[in-house]
Amino acid sequence: MLQSIRDRATGPIAWGIVGLITIPFAFWGIDSYLQGPGNPEVAEVGDAEISQTQLQRAYDQHYQRLQQLMGDNFDPDSINNAQLRRGVLDNLIREEVLTQYVRDSGYRVSDVSLANTLREQTAFQEGGSFSAERYREVLSRNGYTPAAYEARLRNALAMDQLQQGLTSSAFVTETDVNAAARLEQQQRRIQYLEFNLEQYSRQADISDEDIQAYYEAQPARFSTPERVRLEYLEIDKSTLKPADRPDEAVLQAMYEAEKQSRFTTAEQRKARHILIQTQDNEAEAAKAKIEKIAAQLKQGASFEALAKELSEDTGSRDDGGDLGWIGRGVMVPEFEQALFALPENKVSEPVKSPFGWHLIRVDELRPRQVQPFKNDEVQEVLLRLYREKELAERFQQMSKRLDDLSFDNPDSLEPAEDALNLDIKVTDWLNREGGDGLGQHPAVIEAAFSPAVLQDRENSGLLKLNDERIVVIRVDAYEEARQRPLNEVSDDIEDELRLQQGQSRARELAEQAVKRLRDGENAAAVAAALGIRLEVPGWVEREDERLDARLLNTIFGLPRPKGGEASVGHGVLSSGNQAVVILSAVQDGDPAKLTAEEREEIQRRLAARSANMEFRVYETAVRDSMDVTIYEERLQ
Predict the structure, then answer these.
(1) Where would a tag sit more exposed on the chain, N or C end, judged by fewer CB atoms within 10 A?
(2) For the segment 172-201, what is each residue's pLDDT rounded down to a tens digit?
(3) How far apart are CA 481 and CA 226, in angstroms?
(4) Are residues 473 and 494 located together in one domain of the fold?
């Protein structure tokens, strides 16, 4: 199935296609055929490797998603690059572990199921139906071969089978729902004391001797590694101005070249089928079964009803065998030949294919159509194609020109800046561990600290950041590793010592309060003695918006009061302040008051939680059974 598409189509995938596939664990990573020399692996998983390029591309994609998600609130300084990179690697390892497991465990996805999934992807549809030309165009535009795309999709479907098989058995009893309702809708009556960290930090007494001793005790904390600041020229294809609209003759020539492949809708047929699959030892039985169904159809039986009852194609069976609109080059040759030989509303004789025996019915015909040159949609497509081609050529020409100019003028970027009308930019300080911006790219860091760039102060070669961004760098400034002098860091040390003393004092007073309360002292009296205010919010719920989230965690983590005595606990708030909680009463939620919708929501949530836990346990066991090696020194 889909073999003729594979034979006729070419091209690589960009990650834009991935977002079109709503299947768990879909497609992080990049194909090994995109990896070139000088691309060492950062991890080995079973019989596969994960390369630096693969990790960097996945990291870039995840970083960009964070930027889009947070919008104006995105702060690069809040990102721990090393931690984020490690999390991305863990996801790549997780996917590869599952990929190998489903392969070795014999999970398989038939071409029929694969074709059904492809037909459902709106990106590959025209007029609500799958289009082979559209499929080829979308993959080519986004840089993927149909064979590679189908292999990844088949793998994702197989992993979905694994997950569904493990999680579909999760169930929740009424007892579970009632217990969850009592717990989730519980209320607690509390008072609390809050010890202000900032106040105690201000009151701390820090001497010059304290600062000197702290500085001398931790010299490594106050040293800076060698670092560079880089000048660079960048060509970003996404920021290049699109070409003006060309003469109509140019578009007309493009139209003639593309008319058959892009603007001609081949004949399509809306079809149904009934499939009886064959195994080597059941070939005759399958043939007999399809012949019996054919006889029933000739006697007036409903095609749709028999398909629902007897067809073994799970993708179309529930829809009465409906395959939707089909063009040439989608189905295997045996099926296609029979389909396009049928008149409308006629049922074929039994047709043998590699998947089994079929009975096919054509419900509707859609003749071949050619969109005219003057059509608005055609004009829009032609202009887009022209601009894409012109932009790709211009990007390639500019890249080559930048490479030549930076090589011919190794001691300056200015000739290339003037010739290409670019602006020289300057990075923040970067060290060998990387940094923000360009520092996220291992190729940039490697080049920045290479002998030619760092010692000889020459321009780098052309560095590819991704398929649309290239740079040339040179060193703007360099600093050797050094010990920062005390006068440069004394204010920071004082702030840190004040914070430490403030934390210690707040914790000490909080612990005193806990002891006095547990010894039976009145909460108001303890607050007065310690010079702080007693807060009395009364009854609170788990999602009470009046209170700090960490305070709520402390409140609902306390044991129930016993024997008429309050339960006392101690926690740290999001602000760093210490809090002492006095819990005097607990009132459970009432399951009898749940609406049907609330009960259903709790049941759904508990089932999802149970299923997820089951799958994670299984996934951990699979990973533990597989050889995984991570090369920590190559992660930067």
Answers:
(1) C
(2) 888 989 998 999 999 999 999 999 999 999
(3) 4
(4) no
